[in-house]
Write a structure and sequence with these properties.
single chain, 230 residues, alpha+beta, 2,3-Dihydroxybiphenyl 1,2-Dioxygenase, domain 1
Length: 230
């Protein structure tokens, strides 16, 4: 799959493919492995582990330990939490200070495809009735029988890797006819990604699009297709 994507991008850069032909080719590559797979039983289709959170007594000592062990610099997200990056795909170990009875592993997060908190809660109730589950922001926490919580969230690792920032879900409406065609003829859901800015004046006078966003958008789509293909 990687070789096919590289070939398509190279042909586009050489002017042998139009932008439309590049997009069509990437869609075919992305749809092929999905169409070949059998439907999976379960509430979600996991794309990978996003992060693991541990709870500790001494935050500073734990931060120093993991920084020395992994050769990275932790990033403080609050007064009682530090994130330790692992690899280049946006995965991390979250270290949080706590009091009272300490659970070494507080929770681990799984990134899933076609995610929304409300549909996730409904899916959990369908496959595991009575399981404790609650919405928290743009994710859902499920408590397993052993007491360890599992965080279910959207698969945004590819975008985080390219842009170095968390993905923002704006829940924007719009009329995109091809989305209905893909659902009707291929039976596949669509993931809509926007790379424009609020002041781009879409469909209005002086409409613009930042070239850096255009270039990184292409890279983001390629990385996303790679993640889906795996």
């Amino acid at each position: 799959m990687q070789q096919t994507i590289d070939t398509l991008v190279r042909q586009f850069e050489q002017g042998r493919l139009t932008r439309r032909q590049l997009v069509q080719g990437l869609l075919v590559v992305a749809a092929a492995p999905v169409a070949a797979q059998q439907p999976q039983a379960g509430a979600f289709r996991a794309a990978g582990i996003d992060h693991v959170q541990i709870t500790v007594d001494d935050l500073k000592a734990s931060q120093q330990f993991y920084e020395k062990l992994l050769g990275v610099t932790g990033k403080s997200t609050s007064a009682n939490q530090v994130n330790i990056g692992v690899g280049t795909a946006g995965n991390f170990v979250a270290i949080q200070s706590g009091t009272g009875r300490i659970k070494p592993i507080d929770h681990f997060a799984i990134a899933v495809e076609t995610f929304s908190p409300d549909t996730a809660l409904a899916a959990i109730e369908r496959v595991a009735p009575g399981t404790k589950a609650e919405k928290s922001g743009n994710s859902v926490f499920v408590t397993g029988p052993e007491g360890v919580r599992v965080q279910i969230q959207a698969a945004t690792r590819a975008l985080h890797e390219v842009w170095g920032k968390d993905t923002v879900f704006i829940r924007s409406g719009g009329s995109i006819p091809i989305v209905g065609d893909l659902a009707r003829h291929l039976g596949l859901p669509s993931v809509m990604m926007g790379f424009g800015l609020p002041d781009d004046n879409l469909h209005a006078p002086n409409e613009k699009f930042n070239l850096k966003n255009f270039e990184l958008g292409i890279v983001s789509l390629i990385r996303f297709l790679e993640e889906v293909g795996h």
